[in-house]
Amino acid sequence: MGSCKCWCVFVICLASVFGCVYGSPRSEEVTALENFLHAVLPSSSFTSFNFSAICSWEKIRCTEDGIVTGIFLESLDLRGYIPMNTLGNLSSLSELSLYNNSLQSPIPPDIWSLTNLRYLSLSLNSFEEELSTQLSHLVKLERLDLSQNKFYGPIPQQIGQLNHLQYLYLGFNSFSGSLSADVFTNPSLRVLDISHNELNGSLPPQPTNLSNLLYLNLSGNSISGKLPFGLSAMRTLATLDLSNNSFTGDLESLHGLPSLEQVILSFNSFTGPIPLLRSSKIVKMNSNLLSGHIQAVFGPQLSVLDLSSNSLSGAISELVNVSSPLMKHIDVSSNSFSGSLSLVNFTSFTALEYLDLSSNNITGSIPDAIGDSTNLTYIDFSNNMINGSVPQSFVHLTSLSHLDLSCNSLSGDVTELTRLQNMKYLNLSFNENLGCNFALVAAFGMGSFSGVMDCRPAAANITLPPPGSLRKGKINLGIVVGVVVGCVLGLGVVFMIFSVVRCRKKGRWPRHSTLSLKQRVGTFKEDSKFMSGPFSFESNSGPWVANVKNATSVPVIMFEKPLLNLTFADLLRATSNFNRETQVSQGGLGPVYSAMLPGDLHVSIKVLIDGRILTNEVAASEFSSLAKIKHPNLVPLLGYCIVGEERLVIYEFMKNGGLHRWLLGSPDCSQGFPPHNHMYYDVSRDLASRATVEPLPEAVNLSWGVRHKIALGLARALAFLHHGQSVKLVHRDVKASNVMLDEEFEPHLANTGLAGLLAGSEDAMFAGGSPGYAPPEYGQSGGKVTSMGDVFSYGVVLLELVTGKKPIGDTYEDEEGAGTSGCPAINDLVGWIRMLMHEKQSGSLIRALDSRAYEDPISQGQMLEVLRIGYLCTADLASKRPTIQQVVGLLKDIAPNMNSP
Ligand SMILES: *[C@@H]1O[C@H](CO)[C@@H](O)[C@H](O)[C@H]1NC(C)=O
Ligand SMILES: *[C@@H]1O[C@H](CO)[C@@H](O)[C@H](O)[C@H]1NC(C)=O
Ligand SMILES: *[C@@H]1O[C@H](CO)[C@@H](O)[C@H](O)[C@H]1NC(C)=O
Ligand SMILES: *[C@@H]1O[C@H](CO)[C@@H](O)[C@H](O)[C@H]1NC(C)=O
Ligand SMILES: *[C@@H]1O[C@H](CO)[C@@H](O)[C@H](O)[C@H]1NC(C)=O
Ligand SMILES: *[C@@H]1O[C@H](CO)[C@@H](O)[C@H](O)[C@H]1NC(C)=O
Ligand SMILES: *[C@@H]1O[C@H](CO)[C@@H](O)[C@H](O)[C@H]1NC(C)=O
Ligand SMILES: *[C@@H]1O[C@H](CO)[C@@H](O)[C@H](O)[C@H]1NC(C)=O
């Protein structure tokens, strides 16, 4: 006995000495793991990887004798396929995580023989296959995470047999079909997340046994039907997210659930009253059809309440039922609340940061005590019938950055608002009797005071047109003139502020940068004749062209084809001296000509009106860097030419021209739109030169499939600009006329980088995007140009694509009449869609769709989805908009049938 023990000790000692000398013990298992790594590790990390010491790596767990039990190969850029007989051979493996790599399908079947697995994560990879029913062999599984892949098909009901499964994450895949009851009857489940898939059907009628569930997330599917009463058995449930589905019926089965803290039911069609939610901390039920009052159904710990866009009613003073020292965020906008705002006891909302009561039927005045909620950063009371004055106590709201009181009946003086240093957005418009405050007009633009009577005569005092020009209808014309002049002045002020700030910041404007504001205004006037550039000629060639003495000595720089040795003379020849006949459009940046250059190179040449603000050197270097920004959905910049004062940029020609002209509808509708905003395109013009532009086809009918392709391509271009590896660029001027279509109707975003380059130019349009496309924050002081601004403009293009309507100046069918007081009828696309979304009768949304684009109900449904994305992108608040990458993801999930006409 004794000697045997001794032997054993000796053998163990020997083994460990062996281990020390030769590194970790080797075994068939280690070889299998090594084979796996060889197959999937990127070659770059090969050299730095010590294969002889696999088991001593912290990402691998082995037993002493080299049996692999844990693998945590996360975020290592692993690519390709998992080979058979590698991971599948590690029969003792109990934990396997390959989270955040680029592994692909197929998953080798021997993975499903790893019956000792307790934890398996394949999350955030590129697996694209049906989930194997052999999953049921993994009987010890406690935690399964397959989220963020492209798994499709049904969720195997065998998951219900995994009796130890506690955490199941299947979110952000493409699982479809309806949820089987088996998934819902697993008593060990604590977390069930199947969000953002394509599940449909209704929930199984009697889900019981989920007695330990803490977290249930089924958001972002298409599940319909009523909530089964069985949900009321989920006594431990703390988080429930069913948002973005098609649920109907009431919320009775949630009534009194004892542990429910987060209830997120947004964007469904739930009806009936809000149930008793005693433990609630976060409640989001926006965009449903809920009715009834705000009753004392919430818990004392409630901090976020979003009930916007429902059919709730009752006195607004019933907000007392959600008052608590923890309450931070209240949004009850777009309901039918009434009663007096003065009865709301703000003393009991000490922590409140966000308060949106807009679009209700609230009367009375703003109580003084609002000044006690000193943490408020966001207030929106717009579209109500609130009267009285803006209380002095607003000066205490020092964190306030967003204040919208528009479309009410407020009066009196607002001087105290000038003291709020953090204010970034202010809208007081359409309070007829409010006092005008010029400091605020200067800081936030005339738009923030439009419809305020007091602001009008003041503006009109400065430049009244001769009385003879005002014929009959004095009053109306007077107001119109007043508003127009006011707007021009307001824009001017905003623009000047913008320009100066920009000029200082960017150090652009090499020629004028030392001028004072006053001098700049002077320069502007003197220059204006000169500035009109080549596009003002009536004759076929112009002075600036004639002034170029030796055209053959002016080189044209072509980035890809330098050997063509082109000169300005070639451009003159190809455009017949920039003859009007070869002009294809008049963009905001300057006229564009079509030209066929030597070598059968079909290009468009843009003469930048404001190009002269760039010195020759700056222009050359900026154009060269812009040419390096390449993406299949950007119009390629091929070259440039600097000739005298003019800067010409040369782009690849796009056969089907700008998107806007395909959406305008029949030609007779297209007259009268502002030429500055839209390029003109005259179908009847006969372009005799070789470089003809395809005339607009008779029936302007882009099918839904093509429109979707355009939406997705444009989003990809922006995603590349915003989030690309090499570039981080805000386009600043996304609009339909900057979306060029090639022969295949693939979209290409034009003018990338130019708006930024010419930002110092006199054209206020580029200080803040084009009319109808500019996000609200660009018109506000401190409104910075951000990628979220592009997202807004992109959203407008999306809305154009699905509705076929222009962003401004179109007819927007008014269903129920606009705001409740003073507000004008809807006059822009974004406002119109917002109104229709709030009405929430799907009928009215369907009427908004461009009926020329679809024939079948599936396309119609998809267009409604895209309409909703456009609605999200055009949110007033930049922080509420999705990123363009998220938009790409959403659009990719919508796959139109390309065969439909
Ligand atoms: C690899 O690991 C072994 C055992 O730990 C060690 O002896 C060897 O020096 C390592 N090689 C490199 C290149 O780090
Ligand atoms: C993996 O297992 C298979 C079958 O059991 C066997 O043929 C193969 O040699 C093993 N591979 C390794 C590297 O151990
Ligand atoms: C995924 O891995 C990459 C490195 O391959 C890393 O840059 C990125 O931050 C990781 N993402 C997440 C969500 O962990
Ligand atoms: C659910 O989706 C599938 C396709 O994924 C479809 O065949 C089925 O008809 C849908 N069921 C319902 C109720 O919509
Ligand atoms: C608003 O209130 C007025 C009168 O108080 C009522 O006539 C109107 O229908 C209400 N509007 C809504 C949308 O509730
Ligand atoms: C307002 O709320 C405060 C604190 O909750 C309370 O002390 C006060 O009595 C209330 N005032 C009215 C008029 O209800
Ligand atoms: C207001 O905000 C500050 C900073 O976030 C915080 O410390 C303070 O507690 C808040 N006040 C109330 C009454 O919650
Ligand atoms: C505008 O003109 C009217 C009449 O001439 C005058 O009463 C008013 O004070 C002027 N307003 C401003 C702001 O100058």
UniProtKB/TrEMBL annotation:
<dbReference type="InterPro" id="IPR001611">
    <property type="entry name" value="Leu-rich_rpt"/>
</dbReference>
<dbReference type="Pfam" id="PF13855">
    <property type="entry name" value="LRR_8"/>
</dbReference>
<feature type="transmembrane region" description="Helical">
    <location>
        <begin position="477"/>
        <end position="501"/>
    </location>
</feature>
<feature type="domain" description="Protein kinase">
    <location>
        <begin position="578"/>
        <end position="872"/>
    </location>
</feature>
<protein>
    <recommendedName>
        <fullName>Protein kinase domain-containing protein</fullName>
    </recommendedName>
</protein>
<feature type="signal peptide">
    <location>
        <begin position="1"/>
        <end position="23"/>
    </location>
</feature>
<keyword id="KW-0433">Leucine-rich repeat</keyword>
<keyword id="KW-0472">Membrane</keyword>
<keyword id="KW-1133">Transmembrane helix</keyword>
<keyword id="KW-0732">Signal</keyword>
<dbReference type="Pfam" id="PF07714">
    <property type="entry name" value="PK_Tyr_Ser-Thr"/>
</dbReference>
<dbReference type="GO" id="GO:0004672">
    <property type="term" value="F:protein kinase activity"/>
</dbReference>
<keyword id="KW-0677">Repeat</keyword>
<dbReference type="InterPro" id="IPR050994">
    <property type="entry name" value="At_inactive_RLKs"/>
</dbReference>
<dbReference type="InterPro" id="IPR003591">
    <property type="entry name" value="Leu-rich_rpt_typical-subtyp"/>
</dbReference>
<dbReference type="GO" id="GO:0005524">
    <property type="term" value="F:ATP binding"/>
</dbReference>
<dbReference type="InterPro" id="IPR001245">
    <property type="entry name" value="Ser-Thr/Tyr_kinase_cat_dom"/>
</dbReference>
<keyword id="KW-0812">Transmembrane</keyword>
<dbReference type="Pfam" id="PF00560">
    <property type="entry name" value="LRR_1"/>
</dbReference>
<dbReference type="InterPro" id="IPR008271">
    <property type="entry name" value="Ser/Thr_kinase_AS"/>
</dbReference>
<dbReference type="InterPro" id="IPR011009">
    <property type="entry name" value="Kinase-like_dom_sf"/>
</dbReference>
<dbReference type="InterPro" id="IPR032675">
    <property type="entry name" value="LRR_dom_sf"/>
</dbReference>
<dbReference type="GO" id="GO:0016020">
    <property type="term" value="C:membrane"/>
</dbReference>
<dbReference type="InterPro" id="IPR000719">
    <property type="entry name" value="Prot_kinase_dom"/>
</dbReference>
